[in-house]
Amino acid sequence: MSQVFDGYERQYCELSANLSKKCTTATILDGEQKKQKISEVKAGLDDADALIRKMDLEARSLPPSVKASLLAKLREYKTDLNNLKTEVKRISSANSNQAARDELLESGMADAMMVAADQRGRLMMSTERLNKSSDRIRESRKVMLETEDLGVSILQDLHQQRQSLLHAHNTLHGVDDNISRSKKILTNMSRRMSRNKWIIGSIIAALVIAIILILYFKLAH
């Protein structure tokens, strides 16, 4: 909701209630006192018109989702203002005829005031319902944004975990390769050692045979 609109709205509601009281007072006054009271009411109606125009401009400058509800409230305020203007016209016209004034006071004016009071009551109730609906919309939007932030955070965590798993997999793959190469090296070394053992054994055997032959020939001579 708009704080500017809310400020104009509070001013209008207070002014409307004050004008309604002045209309009621004007119906029981006579002469100059009545004229003065009607003049005050008319001046107040001008102020009320100005507030209605300001609320209209403010509402139309807001986003569509907010503007619709504010314009609905504004239509009710315009109806309330028209009722007040109608009451002032009746009071003014009754000022020229005492009998008509008495009759209006006893019947029509009382009915008009009751209708106006009922409309203002419904207006305030509608305003309260719209405010509650706006609060629920703001709360729902807040929950939606928090849920969206949570979802983004979870996706980021999952991405980091995936990267960690891929890194661990690559590390294990590298370890497997190193183990395979080590096995090949050890196998080759083992084969070389076995071959060298056979070579050394053959050399030793040849030397022993040569020594024996040398000793044999010496003893023979």
Automatic annotation (TrEMBL):
Q: Which UniProt keywords apply?
A: Coiled coil, Membrane, Protein transport, Transmembrane, Transmembrane helix, Transport
Q: Which Pfam families match?
A: V-SNARE, V-SNARE_C
Q: Which SUPFAM superfamilies match?
A: SNARE fusion complex, t-snare proteins
Record GO biological process: intracellular protein transport; vesicle fusion
Coiled-coil annotation reads: 67-94
Which residue spans traverse the membrane?
A: 198-217
The question of whether Secreted is a record keyword is answered with: no
Q: Does the keyword RNA-binding apply?
A: no
The annotated topology with respect to the bilayer is: Single-pass type IV membrane protein
Q: Per the database record, which ranges form the Vesicle transport v-SNARE N-terminal domain? A: 1-91
Location comes to: Prevacuolar compartment membrane
Protein name, per record? Vesicle transport v-SNARE N-terminal domain-containing protein
Which organism was this protein described from?
Coffea canephora
